[in-house]
Amino acid sequence: MTQSAAQSPKNPGTSPPIAQVEGAQISALQTGLLDWYAANRRDLPWRQTRDPYRVLLAEMMLQQTQVPRVLPRWHAWLERFPTLEALAAAPTADVLREWSGLGYNSRAVRLQAVARHVVAEYAGIMPRDVPTLLALPGIGEYTARAIACFAHEQDVPVLDTNVKRVLHRVLLGPDVPKPLVNDRQLWALAERTVPIGRGYDWNQGLMDFGSIICTARKPACLVCPLRPICRAAPTIGTALAEQQGARRRAGRSDAPAAVPFTSTARFFRGQILRALGAQPANAGLTLDALGARIKPDYAAAERPWLHGLVAALHRDGLVTADPAPARPAAVRDGAAPYMTENAAPTAQDDLANVRVTLPHG
Ligand code: SF4
Questions:
Q1: Which of 59, 98, 141, 191 is an active site residue?
Q2: How far is the CA of 225 from the centre of ligand 1 (A)?
Q3: Cα–Cα dist 225/29, whole Å
Q4: Which domains does the chain have, with CATH numbers?
Q5: Entry pTM
Q6: Could you read off the pLDDT of 168-223 as tens digits, one per residue?
Q7: Cβ of 292 less than 6 Å from ligand 1
């Protein structure tokens, strides 16, 4: 089974390892993996629907959140926003409130941007083909193919981290200390592996297999049904042990001390959105009031730090700051893609007047 070039990432490369993968090896993988999936498939609610909106929601939530945490939130979200139209029409502040606690809140804004675009441009009907899906705002290679496969049952490869790892190990060899091929080459290989008419089970099965059996750090090679055909099986244990040894040695010498999560910008971004979500609609908070809610020992001297966080959230469309933060010079010049704690060039007294709210739209 091969896919059309129009459905591949641009210019997929080839390499000697990929050229050496034989059809018989791929057939054996297809048989072994589909047999394993038939006996071990997880009963997940987004596998009982082909509604593109529900599939898209699951994919967005699962991108950086584990299945057990996503399950109740997926149901709750659909209670609140049962259709693309409902999501498109909702105030962004409500969307962010509903997403609160899942982390990486820009996913919620992207999800609503897709909903608004599909409602405005496609009468609320999600496109089917990969090139058109790729043209939607915030939809990348993975998500476009996930919708094409999991909503429309097209035989396209869906390559997430787990799938990449499984294909690499079984067909090419150990993926440690580093992969033998790059992502584009792996996409080209993945195109050859999708069984005709079985793309849905194939991709779901690969994802399950990668998260249950062929995990990144502790693959269950001893009980793995693919062991007889797996090119990594003879050496994967040794390769992982050597990699872990190298990590330990680096940890003893010059590795930086781990930073507690509660000290990170990501933690405080979440705290800011949670504090604003608890406010009445459009009420907002000054920087100092916001700081007191997210940090017990907050002091006015920390306004520039807090303003830096707010400026980054403002730029991501997750909050509205009034007055709007000036764009940092480094970003204007294209030299730095992301500002975190760097304060915009605003005087300390001016910062006291900044009000922050969830987006009004
Ligand atoms: S034998 Fe080990 S490395 Fe190969 S697919 Fe199975 S779990 Fe993964």
A1: 59
A2: 8
A3: 10
A4: 16-43+157-251 (1.10.1670.10), 51-150 (1.10.340.30), 261-357 (1.10.10)
A5: 0.79
A6: 999 999 998 889 999 999 999 999 999 999 999 999 999 999 999 999 999 999 99
A7: no
